[in-house]
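# step 3/5: fold
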Amino acid sequence: MTDTHAGADHQVALEDPTSTLIELLSLADFDGARTAEDIFLGPSQKQPRHRVFGGQVLAQSLVAGMRTVDQDRTVHSMHGYFLRPGDANQPITFSVERLRDGRSFSARRVHAYQEGQPILSMIASFQASADGVEHQAAMPEGIPDPESLPSTAELLRKFDHPLARHMSFERPFDVRHVDPALYVQAPKEHTATNAVWMKTFGPMPDEPNLHLAALAYASDYTILESVLRNNGLSWMTPGMSVASLDHAMWWHRPVRVDEWLLYVQESPSAQGARGLATGKIFSRDGQHVATVAQEGMIRIPS
């Protein structure tokens, strides 16, 4: 699939960026060599602002942990802290410590490094399939279909800027806002909620772990927008600085990221230049597939 960006005086054709996501999640393992820890190497996706996208390093860290766990154990939760900004022009080294392998659960600690310094610290838990109690949150009603909503490319078409082109055509996920998007303009109504539909532009391989990791990648795109929306801010607010501080995620049910998913978000609190946001992710048929929580630093000029 090829997309075309029409700028003021030129057009740029770009290949389907889903292949970029697959490449990012294909870590090198040095032919199985290990010390006390398992070591992997991953590429970085180039970014207009030259900082590694947080969702990328989360997803790659998960893949590194998955590589060290028996195939019958699936990730069900992870908790990570962003320690330093990453350089999008440099690869990332991942070290995995095998904390525990019990009868049903395995735990892994993953550190992501650049230039010998950790940029992310994460612990993930994996579980063998089991039967037990079951219930789920209900998917919100009255949400418009994704096909009826404008794409990011349609919203940013008139902006001939590297960041607008990246968000429109280089990100592997098609993201469509249920409420007016916050890319450029602050919202008229202040509400501590946000919702988007999202899926990869192209098909993904039939590898369940790849879809779980890719969902972590996408979960970092818009999670803080519920904080911004409730405070009358857009991503282009002059002088604003935003950075993810930590990220937690729980996977509840199987998922495919190449099919439409509804990501419903809300912010219970913001204070001290920090905002907390939570999100529920639903498949189109109403299955609650994952839950996310993130705290971010949000500084605005006084």
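# step 4/5: annotate
The radius of gyration is 19 Å.
# step 5/5: archive (pending)
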